[in-house]
Amino acid sequence: MNKFILRRVRVIFVLVIVIFILLSGRLAYLQVLKHDYYLYRAEQNRFTKITLPATRGEIYDAGGNLLVSNRPGFVVSLMDMGEGYDDETIDFLSEVLEIDAGEIYEAIEGRRYMRYLPLRLKSDITMETISRLSEHRWKLKGVNIEIRPIREYRCGATAAHILGFLGQAPVNESTRERWAEEGYSYEEGDLVGQEGIERAWEPHLRGVDGEQRIEINNMGQPINFFEREEADPGHSLYLTIDLGLQEMVEESLAGQVESMIKKEGDSYIGRASAVALDPNSGAILAMASYPSYDLNKVSKEYARLLQDPKRPLTNSAIQGCYPIGSTFKMVTGTAALESGAISDREVINCRGVITLYGDTKSCYHRIAHGSLNFYRAMAVSCNIFFYQAGLRAGIDKIAHYAREYGFGSPTGLQDLIGEASGVVASREYKAAVTDGEQWYPAETMSAAIGQSYNSMTPLQIANYAAIIANGGTHYRPYLVQKVVDSAGKVIQETRPEPLRQAQISARTLQKIREAMRGVTRPGGTGYYHSSRLSVTSAGKTGSAEVAAQGRGIPAHSLYVGYAPYEDPRIVLAIVLEHGGSGASTAVPVAAEILEYYFTGGAKGASNGEAETETET
């Protein structure tokens, strides 16, 4: 071996020794010096914590009937095991779960999921789907099948707008802030209440999740279970609504709407709403919006419901704003009586038509009522009388007393989110929406019978009647009467809360009540159906003209009233969109509801074909 080769061998030998020393040093560093660190990392890869969702609180009606509960169901979730999501696994899940692969990728991107944090893909899957997943479980990376509580709505579509539903849709900032103030921790993508009681009472219903430490294999599948911290169940809610009455209200609205469609065949007909209140507390006894939707199917049918022109997802009882026609006449009467513009016994002559300030207006079908005082004018719903009363009182007084009755602002309901404020017709409102245009006396005539800019919700209308019935107190409407924890202890109970006292004299309120009583007596527009009730009642019918009325669009049909007349226990507000005369369509619904409430039967039921006096 020559010197050159020997030199190269020595160099190679030295390099081998150096490399060996470096590798040995690195090995010693990893196994000795960094032993604890990498052991911890390995354990972290092998162990993870999974969330144990709290059982959501149940919801009951006032009588203890279970409305919303939970049942066990299978949930499929996907987890990143540290190597990203497997495309083949996602494609397979897309096919089996019938979810577009793009939606899965979008959910992954939108949530910015971290490793080992499960992404819930689908809940309440069938046994057939579970079988298909189980057959291929060995090759599905990060796929878990768990048994978790599934929300079950016992009555399907009944009280859907009150109860609401769950979903993963984003929660707005104001709601997040309110929840944070209540100590509720919300993470984007959580399954939370989207509407109704489920949304407004989310922090109470949700409970506190538990967690469990588990050992997983390289596919992300659990192979062993360790420490477990149990979840704290959510609180249960007892509502003020009566299930039987709620069902009756919804059935009556649906029956009347379907009857009108069959009879009239009008494409505008199809929506209705009703509210029943206890005038002495503000407790909501029933609240309905038609059409409704099945809460157990809403997740599957949401896209269709969203596109439905009848807007079944909208709670018209608190979000629908309507001109209220002649049911507004108690406001005009109050303004005229309180200001001294008229007396209750003053007689005004109605010839069926009147022309004032360049505008010609009439009573319904130009009926001439002759000479009549305040009580008779309310009973037969004489427009001419209230045009005159409104002009004498003036728009400022009318607007003032409309606000005293709670119009133009939310009623104070806190158990549902999204209550509309409505609008009170006034010179200020007109100036704001017309860039400063002045108010004209002819507009006061329209406003006096509930037209013009006046726009109110059915809940506001019911609250208005409650204020009249109870002597002037505006109680906060409410739906939740008590909150009970998982141990059965009452932790919160709602008491009647007077928000304000209407600045209206007791004498005037008594005259208004007497006038409303005349509506349900012989000759009144609501007499035919009211006379068949087993209790006395008072009320007011209304037919409210809508935009483009001249094109043949039917008026809205309304009724507001209470019973018994001597000792009010229930107030009703009924709105049938494009239902025509309140006497022929809204009153029959009210009669059915009142008869059920007081006797448990529906002797007041009618298809609306009756000889009744009508009104505008």
CATH names the topology of the largest domain as Beta-lactamase
Q: Any idea what the radius of gyration is?
A: 33 Å
SS summary, helix count = 22
Number of domains: 2
Query: Total number of β-strand segments?
Result: 23
Briefly, what CATH class of the largest domain?
Alpha Beta
Biggest pleated sheet: 7 strands, mixed
Gross morphology: elongated
Q: In the CATH hierarchy, what is the superfamily of the largest domain?
A: DD-peptidase/beta-lactamase superfamily
Query: N-to-C terminal Cα separation, in Å?
Result: 123 Å
Helix content: 25-40%
Provide the CATH architecture of the largest domain: 3-Layer(aba) Sandwich
The chain-level mean pLDDT equals: 87
SS-based structural class?
A: alpha+beta
Q: How much of the residues is beta strand, in percent?
A: 15-25%
The low-pLDDT segments are 602-613
Question: Secondary-structure blueprint of this entry?
Answer:
Elements: H1 3-33, H2 35-46, E1 47-52, E2 59-60, E3 66-78, H3 87-97, H4 101-111, E4 119-123, H5 127-135, E5 143-153, H6 160-163, E6 166-167, H7 173-181, E7 192-193, H8 196-200, H9 202-206, E8 210-216, E9 222-229, E10 236-239, H10 243-264, E11 272-277, E12 284-290, H11 298-307, H12 316-319, H13 329-339, E13 348-350, E14 353-356, E15 359-362, E16 370-372, H14 374-380, H15 383-393, H16 395-404, H17 427-433, H18 441-448, H19 458-470, E17 473-475, E18 480-484, E19 490-493, E20 498-501, H20 506-519, H21 527-530, E21 538-544, E22 556-563, E23 570-576, H22 582-599
Parallel strand pairs: 2-10
Antiparallel strand pairs: 1-8, 2-3, 3-4, 3-5, 6-7, 8-9, 10-18, 11-12, 11-23, 13-16, 14-15, 17-20, 18-19, 21-22, 22-23
Helix pairs in contact: 10-22, 13-15, 13-16, 13-20, 14-20, 15-18
